[in-house]
Structure formats: C-alpha cells, structure tokens
Write a structure and sequence with these properties.
Length: about 160
C-alpha cells in the first residue's frame, strides 16, 4: 500500500502568486518521509543509537498544476531505488489534489551518514527492512554508487 500524508495549506505556505510556494513542496516531502520513519521505528532516538542521519543529494521537482489555499494536498512516498547495503536511497513523491489529480512530482536521492565520522555508511539491517517495506515504483532499481553520479555535478570553487 502506498504511503501518503495529507496537508492543509497554511498562509505561510503561499507565495506572492497566491499558490503553494516552491519550498513548501520540499517541506511537505520531508515531513512525509519523516512521518514514515517515525511510524516505522526510525525516529531520532533510534537513529541516534547508530549515530545516523539522512542526507539529500538532490530533489528534482516537476510541476503540473497549482495548489491554492483551502485545497488539501496529499503527498505520496514510494521507494524508487535502494542499494543492497541500504546506504543509498531514492524516493518518488507525487502530489495529489482532493480529486486525486497528480499536480506535481519529485524524485529525491540521498544516503545515510555517520554523524560523527561525516562519512556515508550502510543502513543497519533492521532499518533496511523498514525502508525496503515501502511500496516500490514500477521502475524500482538496486542503486550503486554510479547511480548517485548520474548528473555528474562537481563543485567549482571561486
């Protein structure tokens, strides 16, 4: 079953064009992911036992229709990819209006980091099983380090 979370658009979620602001989409997705994690025993206390934190590599948004105040927003969470060791993950979020119309989509990729070492680490088996339990997209794949370099972006210092 697809994991979803519903949101009410607040005044602070609206931009100068009187529709849902870009950063609110990001906030709703983060909240949806955190809700899934909390409901599945991956809360701050349990992650702290392993000194783990999630990091985002990218979030690619696609907008199809606007959302306005007074309209509920339902955000889905599906697993688009997961590495065999759980270090890397890829999520798909879809945004739906009250009629079930798909108004936006986001592909997000990230990994798990050891908060002391500041290095990417494998996900403990008990957490990997929770992540793997998410509904998978039709194009789900096993992620490799090469998948994380898909866009070949590198920093360019001043």
């Amino acid at each position: 079953m697809m994991y979803t979370k519903q949101f009410e658009i607040r005044w602070s979620d609206v931009d100068a064009n009187r529709h849902l602001r870009n950063s609110a989409y990001i906030d709703y997705m983060s909240h949806t992911r955190m809700s899934f994690m909390l409901e599945n025993g991956m809360d701050q206390r349990h992650l702290a036992e392993y000194n783990l934190g999630p990091v985002a590599f990218y979030e690619h948004m696609y907008y199809f229709r606007e959302f306005f105040p007074g309209q509920p927003v339902t955000v889905s969470l599906q697993l688009k990819g997961l590495s065999e060791d759980g270090m890397y993950f890829e999520f798909l979020h879809n945004f739906y209006d009250e009629k079930g119309k798909n108004c936006a989509r986001c592909e997000m990729m990230g990994a798990w980091i050891d908060l002391s070492e500041r290095k990417l680490v494998e996900l403990p088996k008990k957490f990997w099983e929770k992540m793997d339990s998410l509904e998978k997209t039709d194009d789900f794949r096993i992620l490799t380090k090469e998948n994380t370099r898909k866009y070949s972006q590198r920093p360019k210092d001043l």
